[in-house]
Amino acid sequence: MRLLGMILALGAIGWILYNAAGGDEAESIIPESYQQSLDKAKGVESMVKDSAEQRLQALDDE
Predict the structure, then answer these.
(1) Rounded distance, CA 32 to CA 38, Å?
(2) Could you tell me which residues come within 8 angstroms of residue 30 by beta carbon, excluding any fewer than 6 positions away?
(3) Could you tell me the superkingdom of the organism this chain comes from (predicted)?
(4) Cα separations in angstroms, 61 against 39, 49, 52, 54, 56
(5) Is the pTM of this model over 0.90?
(6) Residues 29, 11, 9, 5: what is their CA dihedral angle, to the nearest 10 degrees?
(7) 38-54: pLDDT as tens digits
(8) DSSP H helical segments within 1-62, as ranges?
(9) DSSP code of residue 25
(10) What is the rounded distance in angstroms from the CA atom of residue 8 to the CA atom of residue 30?
(11) What are phi and psi of 32, to 5 degrees?
(12) Residue 28 to residues 22, 39, 41, 42: CA-CA distances in angstroms?
């Protein structure tokens, strides 16, 4: 009986934490602010890549 109570208590705690974290609404485990930073970094990376390709093209044209 004690084991059953422990399992039910752990299940309830898990359910509470799941709902507190967003439950079904969460699209990923990454927090929104971190996801925005990752998206911004991808944009910067693509700008640097495009700039490098343009410089290489300009050097090839000379």
Answers:
(1) 10
(2) 38
(3) Bacteria
(4) 33, 18, 14, 10, 9
(5) no
(6) -160
(7) 999 999 999 999 999 99
(8) 2-20, 32-61
(9) G
(10) 29
(11) -60, -40
(12) 10, 14, 18, 18
Residues 10, 18: Cα–Cα separation, whole Å: 12
| Cβ contacts of 28 within 8 Å, gap of 6 or more | 35
The pair of structure tokens assigned to 31 is 């927090």
For residue 1, the 8-state DSSP code is -
Least confident residue range of 20-24, 28-32, 55-59: 20-24
| Alpha-carbon distances of 47 from 11, 19, 34, rounded to whole Å | 48, 39, 20
Q: How far apart are CA 28 and CA 34, in angstroms?
A: 11
Report, in angstroms and rounded to the nearest whole number, the Rg of the chain calculated over CA atoms.
24
